[in-house]
Amino acid sequence: MYKIFLAFFLMATSLFACAEISVIYNVKGNTINDGKRIEFSAIAFDQGKVVQIGSDKEILKAFPKADTKDGKGLSMLPGLHDSHAHVMNESRLQNQVQLMGIDTLQGTLDTIKKFANEHPENEWIIGRGWNQVLWDENAFPSKSDLDKLNIDKPIWLKRVDGHAGWANSQAMKIARSSTYEKGVEGGEIIMDQYGIQTGVFIDNAMGIITKEVPEEKATETVAVMSKGLNFLASLGLTTIDDAGIDSQTYHSYKFLANTNAMPIRINAMIHSGAKDFKKMIGLGPVKTADDYLQIHSVKYVYDGALGSRGAAMIEDYSDRHDHKGLFVQTDEFISKNIFELANGGWQAAIHAIGDEANRLSIKALSNPKAQTLNNRNRIEHLQIVDVDDIKLVGKNHIIASMQPTHATSDMNMAEDRIGKERLKGAYAWQTLIKDGVVLASGSDFPVELPNPFFGLHAAVTRQDRNNQPLKGWIPEEAMTVEQALASFTIHGAYTNRNEKVLGSLETGKWADFILVDQDIFSIDPKDIWKTKVQQTWVAGEKVFEKE
Q1: Which domains does the chain have, with CATH numbers?
Q2: What is the value of pTM for the model shown?
Q3: Which tens digits make up the pLDDT trace of 383-415?
Q4: Which of 43, 99, 232, 428 is the most exposed place for a label (fewest CB within 10 A)?
Q5: Cα separation of 114 and 112, whole Å?
Q6: Under 8 Å CB-to-CB from 249, ≥6 apart: which residues?
Q7: Which among 141, 139, 283, 126 has a CA at the least distance from the CA of 216?
């Protein structure tokens, strides 16, 4: 037996030594392996997977015939994982008016007018990103603001959070919005003091307008998606959880995966509100052998967003009495589908922002029928949680899929919306981590910018990129750099049931890594957001290099 084992070992060693192994040395490497930060200066990889990490001396000595590359002192991290984003919405922004960050209503209108003049071929003027909280008016805009631009086209602009839309009179006329006097269930049409529609539609009411927007062709979707994925690779993202896809996006992902044309990895969640939801579910979970595409999650939506007062709250909003937010989908619908699909291994991913929505989400996922421990069910956002409910998240093995930049974007209006007392359970990252909760971080782009280093910075400092407030907003909830990196790497992989093949740089895992221009562990945390990606590698292949 010993001779057989020895012969097998020698043969394997010989084959291993002859393989075309690649080595990158002279890097400042960091990875979170088994909950601990491991530093290294060289990595060896072969056939797309990590063979070994270690010092330059030991790696170069172990693989003397390897194809070597000098890392030139750059910092290396595992490829970053955005656990909640919207790929097609971000990709489509290239042909839409972008309004994010504009801090005046007039500036917003000027940008819309300029875009319309530069895109005369567009049938509709579509855009996203306006945020009335940034304007001096601090009030919803109206159709009359858009009508004054004299653009002879329908205009439809989503708010930054995607939970409200702003239309001009022409778009409203095409959609016959006046026939919806009472709005729709799970949505609200904002009216003026005379009971006339203002042009702002909240949550489910947005469908009144969106159903009239011309649909994209399948070939256009693939082209836009491909371009978007390559852009995201340039930011250091190697895995993204696409939080709520429709049928066209579903089939576009499968086409790219089947033709080996995906530059990065996607875990896509089927939107439970999609027209072909049941049909997509009927095709069963998807997981490619190379781990580039995985579809085993279902996205549910309890409520709207805080900025548009659509988040479902237990008590009234502090700045709008007699209003507790909106339920986008019913508790009965969400619970029924979670329980029915659990036996098939479908992971539940529930959008919940308000404390009432989170209470219902925790209740549903705590039910044994949800099989949360096996399916690794998750709550998306988990923003405002009643302090009595927080402990139940870890107790019931619920994963917290949260977005650090939401805290730094919302800090200028969160207290106005819900008051100081309810902030005790808001954006509570460190509290959840101490309770043993797996926290997976993302951005929710295009609600926020997709650069993951903005998220890492917000997670560690609780500050915006102007380093405000000075000591951070609710600083006791900040993460350490190690915790933040884990939340953007190995925790994302765990959430997708892929921690054995992704999320860290360990022997046998896919060689997904990035090279960046500074070491996030040695610099002042306030500068983490300035980190620039120099190279992105997926499965041992370079998919991006900065010119």
Answers
A1: 81-86+216-538 (3.20.20.140), 87-210 (3.10.310.70)
A2: 0.89
A3: 999 999 999 999 999 999 999 999 999 999 999
A4: 99
A5: 5
A6: 87, 88, 221, 225, 242, 268
A7: 126
**What is the average pLDDT score of the chain?**
94
Rg (CA), the chain: 24
CA pair distance 296, 346, nearest whole angstrom: 5
Q: What tokens appear for 453 in the block?
A: 């280093």
Pick the closest to residue 433 from 493, 486, 497, 366 (CA basis): 486
Q: How far is CA 171 from CA 74, 214, 345, 487, in A?
A: 51, 12, 42, 42
- In the chain, the amino acid numbered 108 is T
Residues forming a β-bridge with 54: 42
**What is the 3-class SS of 146-170, one letter each residue?**
HHCCCCCCCEEEEECCCCEEEECHH
- In the three-class reduction of DSSP (H, G, I as helix; E, B as strand; rest coil), residue 301 is classed as strand
Given the DSSP bridges, would you call strands 533-538 and 513-516 parallel, antiparallel or unpaired?
antiparallel
pLDDT single digits (tens) 162-221: 899 999 999 999 999 999 877 788 899 999 998 999 999 999 999 999 999 988 888 889
Strands 28-33 and 36-40, sheet pairing: antiparallel
Neighbouring-strand partners of residue 157? 127, 166
Give how far Cα 112 sits from Cα of 97, 534, 545, Å: 6, 34, 34
Q: Which two tokens stand for residue 98?
A: 């972008």
Cα distance between residue 346 and residue 298, in whole Å: 7
Average pLDDT over residues 61-80: 98
CB 516 within 8 Å of CB 534: yes
Neighbours of 7 (CB within 10 A): 10
355 Cβ contact list (under 8 Å, min separation 6): 313, 314, 384, 385, 386, 389, 422, 425
- Rounded CA gap, 429 and 464, in Å? 17
Q: Taking phi first (over 0 means left), then psi (-120 to 50 degrees means alpha), and beta for anything else, what does residue 280 get?
A: alpha
User: Per-residue pLDDT tens for 409-451?
Assistant: 999 999 999 999 999 999 999 999 999 999 999 999 999 999 9
Instruction: Determine the Cα–Cα distance for residues 423 and 428; give it in Å rounded to an integer.
Output: 9
Terminus-to-terminus CA distance in the chain, angstroms?
56
User: In the structure encoding, which two tokens stand for residue 109, read together?
Assistant: 């209108």
Angstrom distance (rounded) from CA 479 to CA 428: 10
Element (H, E) at 534: strand 533-538
Distance of CA 44 to the CA centre of its chain: 30
User: Residue 244 has which token pair?
Assistant: 């709520």
Dihedral angle, C-alpha 280, 284, 288, 289, nearest 10 °: -170
* DSSP strands (E only) in 318-438: 347-352, 378-381, 399-402
For 14, other C-beta atoms within 10 Å of its C-beta total 9
